[in-house]
Design brief:
single chain; globular; about 120 residues; mainly alpha
Length: about 120
Amino acid sequence: MKHFYFALAWVSFVLGLIGAFLPVLPTTPFLILSAFLFSKSSPRFHVWLLSLPVAGDGIRDWNENKIIRPRAKVLCAVMMAMSLGAMWTFAHVHIMLKITITLLLSSVGLFVFTRKSK
């Protein structure tokens, strides 16, 4: 199972990295999942992930205390609002897809804003 977890950790990490540049794809949940999977498969890469300058502290806060920093909450809200605004204004996709994405991002927002802050 270690090899399976290791592969999934990398997939999750890459999705999180992509999510840093695509507003529709969330970054933080994928990085947290990567940290969990690396902790089960590769202590070396788990330490590496937690030592990343931009994401390491936030992942550590979540792993140790289930805390999401206020700055991260604000950034999350702004990015989701911009994503939803752009999607509803410019995307020419089926209305059900727009509603599904809106419900998904609203659920993520509810989860994020009901977590403790530092």
